[in-house]
Amino acid sequence: MGLDQPATSGLSRQFTLVNRDHFPRQNTLDMAKPSQLVVAPGTALEPRPKPAYFAVDQRVADPEKELRLRFETFVETRLGPSFLLSIPGGSVLTQGFFVADQDDNLLVDSFRAYGQVGRYGFNEIKPRVVQRNFPPSIPQRGSAIVLGIQTNANYFHWLMEALPRLWLANRFESLGKSVVLVPDLTPWMRDMLTATDVKPGRLALLSAEATSWETLAMPSRGLANIHTFTWHALQLMDMLRARVKNLAAGAGRRLFVSRSKSASRQIENEDEVFAIAETYGFTRVFPQDLNFNDQLALFAGAEAVAGALGAGLANAAFLAPGGALIEFAPEQREGDAVLFANLAHHRGLRYAGVVGPFCGDQNRAFDRRNFLIPTAAAADAFAAIA
């Protein structure tokens, strides 16, 4: 299913950035008026368990800061709230899936959205007010569910942030016939949608600049911020894992997730690190070479996963409680410094981590640079989960 293309003439529109608290909370979801239903309110902060092993290479720019970020500032974690917004006459704007209500309030539903509005052509004209030219919105009949996000093409964010929206929406019978608004879908994105039992006929490609709906339903994302998961994201991971037919077939498997085929953030000395991993029974895998169903089956049956910080480690969410996750991370990851430590906590996994220094082209953006992992620390990390 596709959406009609807009007229080419542009109109300047101003939007006020608001968060979800702008919408009143209701005990039951009323699709006829702006409201939000909180399905799970989130949890209180709770301490993460001590890592099985953790080390920061002294060659990083600020070793004390790295330790502080990971084990002082964010020594605790929690689950973010799960909720669904109902927006009569709501609009979806641009391929960034920004949502606006009839009063031109632009809903900032993500930790990422503040920084993304500029990338999608919105210009800030004063604090919390942005402006952009749009063709007239194309009115669509019926109701729609917003599934897309600003980073649709990233495996981690589609799995852990976007897809949980659909799992949450499926809890509401009133939305059973609503269309599901999606971006251009890759094969692995389609595989994930199939795994959630969505019927292909419900999918609508968001191809227009601005579309408005009689009722727009926006479930919350699977991440409340870059290191805080939600209840419904974890529920989706449980559902997907339960669909693997023969978990026993992969019991005891240990997987080393390689980034050597990735365009950025490679472990410069990956072969040396993997040589150590191999002595502990790890097999090197390249998730991007596998379809989603094969990735799900591979990781759901494993007992341990190791690899560089990146999308491939998202598959650790499919491990059974009691498994292990070893993360090799570059320095200066302030936002997601504890992302995988938190994932390990919520999935009941033992966690070990090593932070290494940048190397190679220093002109690249810091989050794209390759890095080194000291082999002695890598050996201690593998030994700690052996």
UniProtKB/TrEMBL annotation:
| Chief place where the protein resides | membrane
Q: How does it sit in the membrane?
A: Single-pass membrane protein
Segments forming domain Glycosyltransferase 61 catalytic: 155-324
The UniProt keyword set, sorted, is: Glycoprotein, Glycosyltransferase, Membrane, Transferase, Transmembrane, Transmembrane helix
Which InterPro entries does its entry note?
Glyco_transf_61_cat (IPR049625), Glycosyltransferase_61 (IPR007657)
Compartments it resides in: Membrane
UniProt superkingdom: Bacteria
What is this protein's name? Glycosyltransferase 61 family protein
